[in-house]
C-alpha cells in the first residue's frame, strides 16, 4: 500500500500535515461539540477522541512514506553511480553488476 501511495505521488510531508491537522480538528470538534450542541460533555469527549485517533495513523504513514522515499532515492543513486563508474572505465554497464 505504501509503495502504491508513493507511486501515486503522495509525499510524507502531506501525511505529517494531515496528522497535525487531525490534532487541531480533534480539539476544534471537541470545543464545538461542547459549546454548540446541547449534549453532554461525554459526547464532546467522544468526538474529540474519535478524530484524535487519526493522528497516529497519519504519522505512521508519513514515516513509512519517508522510508519509501529514502529507499527509492538510494536505489536511483546507486544505479546512477554504477553506470557512471562503468562508463568511466570504458565498459558497458550491466544490470548483473559484473
Keywords:
4 helices, 98 residues, single chain, mainly alpha
Q: Provide mean pLDDT, rounded.
A: 81
Sheet having the most strands? none
- Assembly type of the chains comes to single chain
Structural class by helix and strand composition? mainly alpha
Percentage of helical residues?
Answer: over 70%
Radius of gyration equals 23 Å
What does this 3D model show about the protein?
The chain has about 100 residues and is mostly helical. It contains 4 helices and no strands. It has helices spanning about 1-5, 10-35, 40-50, 55-90. The longest helix has about 35 residues, at about 55-90.
Summarize the structure.
By secondary structure, the protein is mostly helical.
Topology:
Layout: H1 2-7, H2 12-35, H3 41-52, H4 54-88
Helix pairs in contact: 2-3, 2-4
Amino acid at each position: 500500500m505504501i509503495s502504491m501511495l508513493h507511486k501515486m505521488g503522495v509525499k510524507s510531508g502531506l501525511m505529517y500535515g494531515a496528522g497535525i491537522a487531525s490534532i487541531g480538528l480533534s480539539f476544534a470538534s471537541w470545543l464545538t461539540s461542547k459549546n454548540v450542541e446541547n449534549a453532554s460533555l461525554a459526547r464532546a469527549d467522544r468526538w474529540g477522541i474519535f478524530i484524535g485517533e487519526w493522528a497516529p495513523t497519519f504519522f505512521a504513514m508519513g514515516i513509512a512514506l519517508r522510508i519509501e522515499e529514502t529507499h527509492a532515492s538510494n536505489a536511483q543513486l546507486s544505479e546512477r553511480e554504477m553506470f557512471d563508474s562503468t562508463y568511466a572505465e570504458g565498459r558497458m554497464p550491466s544490470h548483473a553488476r559484473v
